[in-house]
Amino acid sequence: MTIRVAIAGARGKMGKEAVHTVMNNPEMELVSVLDYKEVGKTLADTNLFPADFTAPIFLDLKELHSKTQPDVLVDLTTPEFVYDHTKHALELKIRPVVGTTGFSDEELEELTALSRNSKIGCIIAPNFAVGAVLMMKFAEQAAKYLPDIEIIEMHHDQKLDAPSGTAMKTAHLISQERPIHEQGHVREKETIPGARGANYDGMRIHSVRLPGLVAHQQVLLGGDGQLLTLRHDSFNRGSFMSGVVLSIKTVMEKEELIYGLEHIIV
Ligand SMILES: NC(=O)C1=CN([C@@H]2O[C@H](COP(=O)(O)OP(=O)(O)OC[C@H]3O[C@@H](n4cnc5c(N)ncnc54)[C@H](OP(=O)(O)O)[C@@H]3O)[C@@H](O)[C@H]2O)C=CC1
Ligand SMILES: O=C(O)C1=N[C@H](C(=O)O)C[C@H](O)C1
């Protein structure tokens, strides 16, 4: 069976890569695109894609659904729109595969309940790169033994959310294994507010934004006379595409929301 895929955010850095990935996958068909620009045109009409990329562009998800009947909506847009897109897709019984980051805990809880109640699968993956997922899992394991931890995430300077979704997910996984623990000196004082980064359960997260970067993260675990450094680098957006393909295939078999690629990597 061919999986009918719609993409939101197709003109973006990740979206463009995902369009090519779906178009080149024999088990998938790109049936439509959700966007607020170039509505009524096709991808090819935008001059960003080859002439045979004829998926039509819609502004409204309901109309996109009724005219093109996608099985899956891949969302690669912005933190501002992703919650509405995902909720609306679930209500229309389109399975969301979401790479967009920036969800609040409350939004994730609401979408989890909606997915469970409607029995429509949904995958939200803060990072589709297998190496990044391994870094998170290794950090989770190491935190039991080395609970003094700082996360440094480094991204291109067009990124909207901070900390990154990957850093938030890493901190969440670590906090499940790490004993409750305040780090640093009890009388530590910031001379410039923010100098010590964001505080997640006593761990620190630092966000670096610079041109030239793609997506990079280090987890530093300090101990007496020692430092364990776990590092992952995505040098290009191709690094995320095997995770996108795996998620599109897997969401077809699910009836609940899955948060994180670690739950579906076999
Ligand atoms: N999970 C993962 O592995 C990865 C996740 N990401 C995440 O994916 C998201 C996209 O990243 P990236 O491609 O770098 O960002 P870009 O800014 O390059 O792309 C976002 C695209 O979405 C478009 N867009 C904005 N609003 C809407 C809307 N309402 N409907 C449809 N399209 C819309 C934007 O258009 P315009 O610019 O005209 O507003 C733009 O073309 C981010 O949240 C990022 O953190 C990124 C890489 C990997
Ligand atoms: O915006 C990005 O580029 C990325 N966003 C995701 C995140 O917030 O972790 C995944 C990856 O780091 C790239």
UniProtKB/TrEMBL annotation:
<feature type="domain" description="Dihydrodipicolinate reductase C-terminal">
    <location>
        <begin position="131"/>
        <end position="264"/>
    </location>
</feature>
<feature type="domain" description="Dihydrodipicolinate reductase N-terminal">
    <location>
        <begin position="3"/>
        <end position="128"/>
    </location>
</feature>
<feature type="active site" description="Proton donor">
    <location>
        <position position="159"/>
    </location>
</feature>
<feature type="binding site">
    <location>
        <position position="38"/>
    </location>
    <ligand>
        <name>NAD(+)</name>
    </ligand>
</feature>
<keyword id="KW-0560">Oxidoreductase</keyword>
<keyword id="KW-0220">Diaminopimelate biosynthesis</keyword>
<keyword id="KW-0963">Cytoplasm</keyword>
<keyword id="KW-0457">Lysine biosynthesis</keyword>
<feature type="binding site">
    <location>
        <begin position="9"/>
        <end position="14"/>
    </location>
    <ligand>
        <name>NAD(+)</name>
    </ligand>
</feature>
<dbReference type="InterPro" id="IPR000846">
    <property type="entry name" value="DapB_N"/>
</dbReference>
<comment type="pathway">
    <text>Amino-acid biosynthesis; L-lysine biosynthesis via DAP pathway; (S)-tetrahydrodipicolinate from L-aspartate: step 4/4.</text>
</comment>
<protein>
    <recommendedName>
        <fullName>4-hydroxy-tetrahydrodipicolinate reductase</fullName>
        <ecNumber>1.17.1.8</ecNumber>
    </recommendedName>
</protein>
<feature type="binding site">
    <location>
        <position position="41"/>
    </location>
    <ligand>
        <name>NADP(+)</name>
    </ligand>
</feature>
<feature type="binding site">
    <location>
        <begin position="125"/>
        <end position="128"/>
    </location>
    <ligand>
        <name>NAD(+)</name>
    </ligand>
</feature>
<dbReference type="InterPro" id="IPR022663">
    <property type="entry name" value="DapB_C"/>
</dbReference>
<feature type="binding site">
    <location>
        <begin position="165"/>
        <end position="166"/>
    </location>
    <ligand>
        <name>(S)-2,3,4,5-tetrahydrodipicolinate</name>
    </ligand>
</feature>
<dbReference type="InterPro" id="IPR023940">
    <property type="entry name" value="DHDPR_bac"/>
</dbReference>
<feature type="binding site">
    <location>
        <position position="156"/>
    </location>
    <ligand>
        <name>(S)-2,3,4,5-tetrahydrodipicolinate</name>
    </ligand>
</feature>
<dbReference type="Pfam" id="PF05173">
    <property type="entry name" value="DapB_C"/>
</dbReference>
<comment type="similarity">
    <text>Belongs to the DapB family.</text>
</comment>
<dbReference type="InterPro" id="IPR036291">
    <property type="entry name" value="NAD(P)-bd_dom_sf"/>
</dbReference>
<keyword id="KW-0521">NADP</keyword>
<dbReference type="InterPro" id="IPR022664">
    <property type="entry name" value="DapB_N_CS"/>
</dbReference>
<dbReference type="GO" id="GO:0008839">
    <property type="term" value="F:4-hydroxy-tetrahydrodipicolinate reductase"/>
</dbReference>
<keyword id="KW-0520">NAD</keyword>
<feature type="active site" description="Proton donor/acceptor">
    <location>
        <position position="155"/>
    </location>
</feature>
<comment type="subunit">
    <text>Homotetramer.</text>
</comment>
<dbReference type="Pfam" id="PF01113">
    <property type="entry name" value="DapB_N"/>
</dbReference>
<feature type="binding site">
    <location>
        <begin position="99"/>
        <end position="101"/>
    </location>
    <ligand>
        <name>NAD(+)</name>
    </ligand>
</feature>
<comment type="function">
    <text>Catalyzes the conversion of 4-hydroxy-tetrahydrodipicolinate (HTPA) to tetrahydrodipicolinate.</text>
</comment>
<keyword id="KW-0028">Amino-acid biosynthesis</keyword>
